[in-house]
User: Fold DNA repair protein RadA from Nocardioides seonyuensis.
Amino acid sequence: MSKQAKVRSTYRCSECGWETGKWVGRCGECQAWGSVAEAGTPTLRTAAAPVSSPAVPIGQVSVTESIARSSGVPELDRVLGGGLVPGAAILLAGEPGVGKSTLLLEVAAQTARVHHRTLYVTGEESASQVRLRADRTGGVHDDLFLAAETDLGAVLTHIEEVRPTLLVVDSIQTIGASGIEGVPGGVTQVKEVAAALIRVAKLRNITTVIVGHVTKDGSIAGPRVLEHLVDVVLHFEGDRNSRFRMVRAMKNRFGPVDEVGCFDLSSDGIAAVTDPTGLFIEHHAQEVAGTCVAVTMEGRRPLLAEVQALVSPAPLDRPRRTVSGVDGSRVDLVLAVLFRHCALPLQSYDVFAATVGGARLQDPAADLALAVALASSHLGVPAPRGAIAIGEIGLAGELRRVRDLPQRVAEAARLGFKVAVVPRDRSSHDPGQARSRFVDGLEVIEVDDVHSALLTLRLTRGR
Assistant:
């Protein structure tokens, strides 16, 4: 009498999809408590089946069906690498209220205006609510079809009936598949819904844009496999107190992943911002101490942003450090370098550092502008009008070269700045004195360290 083979149970985390052979109270991947439960019985192996189309040499594959077309929103086309590719699956994630639905409704309306059928499926709002937004933003068109559904089967039926060129699903966490374990938004449901939508998109050459939620730490909610299934992953970023929004490509099979698009979100809808530099610079009527302009790179686009600092005597034993738009650890590093290498005793002062217009400076090239703003505020001496500072600061007080320096300098020259202090090219053999050159009317001064940069801008008394 043969013994029956024992089927080994598998346990899966409902938060991230991590699997293990035994039950544990805490997920080994996402560290969530109480999220591991027994998964369903594993299915049998799939046997060989007939192919849908024979394999052909790669040189004989036609590329005409995969040529991108414009979405009608130039900044989004910039991020996507040219536009919407037929059959592509795009995942757009962002915080609640950042403007994801407004952006995609604008893309859907622009697609409908060029006589391409568009299907907008909403699972979070009613059809009348979306219609009100479309009336406000001017997005009503006969080729834009709207459906309010939360069932995957109903969504697939709408696709068969409408046969759209562009499909927008807002959002995947609200769509559920009948017959699949779990609730909508769970790991199993999200994987099944995403797989079904992507399968239809590839089969019918439908560009599919899926809206995804994010967790409290900013990552995309659901299993990580969702990001692997889609062709493009976009993050929609923005500050609630600012109208400025940015779309950043985190994954792109059809273009670069170091590109961003800029938008202006208002009550009338969302508009592309082709030159966002002016949003991050304050135009002062006179010279003001404690300010300096930095040039950062957002993708391949140089952006100028003003850094402001306020240094005042600390009334308490522990000085305050308050930052907005800049990294607090970089501020501490710059303060230590100014104290050690520039003889500026800022350790006993309250320090406040911020950016203009809600800009977030994560580029280390903004270190020198931050140092100039701090020194200027402490000494009460404004930096020269029309000056910018570019460079990463090292612990020894040296200035390190940054990427795309010619593009940064050219952008500053285009906007009418007069002086740029930048790190010296280490390949030169004449260290010591500052070296200057001119680029389109902009004087570029190369220096070796922070102290030399402050001396050039007349913001230190010397050693």
Notes: The chain has three domains: 7-40, 67-274, 279-456. The first helix runs from residue 74 to 80. Residues 7-40 form one domain. Residues 282 and 356 are 7 Å apart (CA to CA).
